Amino acid sequence: MDEALVVRAQGGDAQAFAALAASTIDRLYAIAYRILRETELARDATQDALLEAWRDLPSLRDPARWEAWTYRLVVHACYNQRRSDRRLSAAIQFFRVDRSSVPDTALSVADRDELERGFRRLPAEQRAVIVLHHYQGLPLTEVADVLGIPAGTARSRLHYATRRLRAALTADATLPATGEERTV
Amino acid sequence: MSVRQSFDHRLNDWLDEGPQVAPYDLLLAVLEELPSHHQERRWLFGGKWRIPMNAFARLGLVAAAVIAAVVVGAVAISGMRSGPSIGNESTPTPSASSTFTSRLYPYSISVPAGWTATWAAARWDGSGAPDIQDLVNDNFISSGTMAMIVVAAPTRKDLATYTADGIAATYAVHKDTCPAAQNPESVESITVGGEPARLESINCGILINVAYTVHAGQGYRFTFRDPAVHAATNTADKATFMALLASVQFK
Questions:
Q1: Which residues pair with B111 in a beta bridge?
Q2: Is the torsion defined by CA of A81, A82, A86, A89 positive or negative?
Q3: E strand intervals along chain A
């Protein structure tokens, strides 16, 4: 990441921001899609996050933190999308995997279906921890830093999310459907 | 493999299955929105960068800010008459066209009222066929669906060779989404800024027209696109494109 570009964009240079956005947009969209599981919502969340980045860029103290900062923005944009789109809660009930759109990997159709169902039952806050840790590969301390939460809370969210997904895979439907979280 | 490893593997595989690339038009949608979103200067008016001060000092700062805003506003209004751009800089006046002078390529062009123009952030190396999201483009975006991108790079080719290579590059880069680029619907002679040029018309599912010209050792590529038109040619689009090309001034 070219920190000089961040500094230029902080000064209002829209072309510098365009370069930053171009280098970041794929990652942000990929994260948003995995949290929201809907392409249109992911698109809106990514757009909101980048526009928020442009507006608030002067408040970013350390240009080297650009990437982590945009992760936080896109996660919060995902939270907003979840809050504003009530169709999602209904979609959980009737969701079926579109098998024509998924690749042929070692993952079984049943696994994919159960993971999708289990993931969609998770609160957005737990989804974000799963995606940043398991997909983006961030250590939990960095996940906590990105999300602005204590490390213990990140661990707790990961623990409960993982437990629920494991339960989904083993067809254990006895866990509650809403988030249980221990703030540390 | 342990139960935990097995679960983590399955979870990671599942997470990897989704899209890795943003939709092609998302970056453009963001950049089009930028002019209507102003950056917040929090070090002056609150937020994380607030400067502690007493009420008297705050009053003085507010007064200074008001004076500065008046001065900056006057400069901005006068700047709006000189050229288009995006972001916090000047934007085209709604009532008249304005002249855009490229920062990286040797030309200027008259931008119609209501269009937004952005400068290229990096110089084109002459290879490939830049798309609208590339950073090497000068971009010109209408308030509707039309847009034009312009790139230029040094060349020793004559117009015929430059055009043939440009058409081949368009197909090579975009054949997955535009197989029709292999055989353009038409390639006709036109002029760009008074220079002989060639116009390639393609139906890529959206209208794509590319004008090629060579001037003073520079090869220019003007690409006009309109996703609302599902044909290689359109009367209104061609009139708009030709008007833009006629206003080009080479340096």
A1: B98
A2: positive
A3: none
**What is the pLDDT of chain B when averaged over all its residues?**
77
Task: Measure CA of the first residue to CA of the last residue in chain A; give whole Å.
Answer: 33
**Quick check: B85 pLDDT over 60?**
no
d(CA B237, CA B251): 26
pLDDT, tens digit, for every residue of B218-244?
A: 999 999 998 888 999 999 999 999 999
* Nearest residue on chain B to A48, alpha-carbon basis: B30
CB contacts, 8 Å: A131 with chain B: 15
Q: Is ipTM strictly over 0.85?
A: no
Number of CB pairs, chain A paired with chain B, less than 8 A apart: 131
Give backbone dihedrals phi and psi of B56, rounded to 5 degrees, phi first.
-65, -45
Answer whether B17 touches A (CB < 8 Å): yes
Residue A33, C-beta contacts closer than 8 angstroms, at least 6 positions apart: A39, A42, B18, B19
Does B45 contact chain A (CB < 8 Å)? Answer: no
**What is the token pair recorded at A72?**
């936080």
Smallest Cα distance from A103 to chain B, Å: 7
Residue from B9, B20, B193 nearest A30 by CA: B20
Distance from CA of A87 to the nearest CA of B (A): 21
Q: Is the Cβ–Cβ distance between A82 and A36 less than 8 Å?
A: yes
The 10s digit of each residue's pLDDT in B19-76 is: 888 887 788 888 888 878 887 654 333 333 233 333 333 333 333 333 333 333 333 3
- Provide the angle, in degrees to the nearest 10, between the axes of the packed helices A151-169 and A140-147: 110
Give the residue-averaged pLDDT of A173-180.
44
- Express each pLDDT in A138-168 by its tens digit: 999 999 999 988 999 999 999 999 998 888 7
Selection from A19, A13, A76, A69 nearest residue A44 by Cα: A76
Residues near A42 by Cβ (< 8 Å), separated by ≥ 6? A29, A32, A33, A35, A36, A78
- Please tell me if residue B46 touches chain A, with a CB cutoff of 8 Å: no
Which residues on chain B are in Cβ contact (under 8 Å) with A17? 34, 87
Angle at B170 between CA B167 and CA B171, to 5 degrees: 90
In this structure, which amino acid lies at residue B152?
A
Q: How far is B2 from chain A (nearest CA, A)?
A: 14
Q: Which residues pair with B147 in a beta bridge?
A: B141, B225
